[in-house]
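Hey, quick one: can you model this chain's 3D structure?
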Amino acid sequence: MSNRRVVVTGTGIITALGTGTEKNWQAMLAGKSGIGPISRFDTGKIDTRFAGEVKDFQPEQFIDKREVRRMDLFSQYALAAAEMAVKESGLPIGPDAPHGYTPEKVGVIVGSGIGGISSLEEQHRKGLEKGFDRLSPFFIIQMIINMAPGLISMRYGCKGPNWAPVSACATSAHAIGEAWKSIRLGETDAAIAGGSEAAITPLGMGGFSVMKALSSRNEDPATASRPFDKDRDGFVMGEGAGIIVLEELEHAKKRGANILAELVGYGANSDAHHVTQPAPEGEGAARCMRLALQSAGMNPSDVGYINAHGTSTQFNDANETKAIKTVFGEHARKLAVSSTKSMTGHMLGAAGGAEAVVSVQTLLRGVLPPTINYTTPDPDCDLDYVPNQAREQRVDAVMSNSFGFGGTNAVLLFKRFK
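Sure thing. Here's the predicted structure for all 418 residues.
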């Protein structure tokens, strides 16, 4: 593999805590929860009646009003997060821009775990009521997942690789990792990468609820997402998007880009074990973390903080803890580990992208975001989870873990840029 270095120059994030990097970062440092009762539909017949809904998003700030109606919410989130990331990076594309990237060498890799599920529900209902010849002509393009990167590429004239990975909760970490590989190999010089999700719908909530995967703490939603806590009882559904701009280092320096961090490692593998449960002892997750370290040429002791997958489920949190101890050995005791899902909920295919943005901010600002709602220690989860309060601590390298249904794993490794 080529030794071209890859840096992050822009970030865009939308979560239940708000729209934009600064708003999210400040909310996380304050330990705020974005979780509350679902407001969009009647949850009367669903066991879990709360989620991490995005409340402040105004699509018209990012997308023409007429176009908004033709897009599913997940595509709206993706376009908006890409807009924020590209704006922050000042990414120049085309011959007319100073130090502009060749359009054919700029890729867009943005995925989603579930895609346009609200459009699917709405059009199916319409078909049953009025006939399937009365569907919206935009239905298919609202639903299909690769429309998110397609729309982003059209907006910015990116003519390089354009595709959408789909790997459940590891989706956007895979997207970022594959974009990194593409730049390292010289296939592209820059990329817009991450993921988007908008699955807080009757089908989305109902489906996860009957699986018994969700927390049922309806009486106190704000404390329901409690990763690594002994009393955790399932994950909390979130939504939104997380997208970053990646560039080849020398070109980024030549154009005077503001470099936020360096992406130095990526691991991707499979548990090959069970459709929903992680492999025993976190075996697959441990291998994946090792792959990321190997690709970066780093030792476990070089990592100061892990933004954990930390879903607030019994199986994930215990197994991820075991995997961290397997990989990091004695150093695991000195590592800070936290789950920002305690505040945003689990954003499914957008989780890894949002957490990549958080990882970059952690390096940039020298503060570790907390795991909120951590009140009762679990003997199976015995690491330093930065409980309840943010911590000022400078770290040089951050690992971000993402594991998904189907036993799919992706791990990203970011370093402070030097």
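One thing worth noting: Residues 307 and 400 are 5 Å apart (CA to CA).
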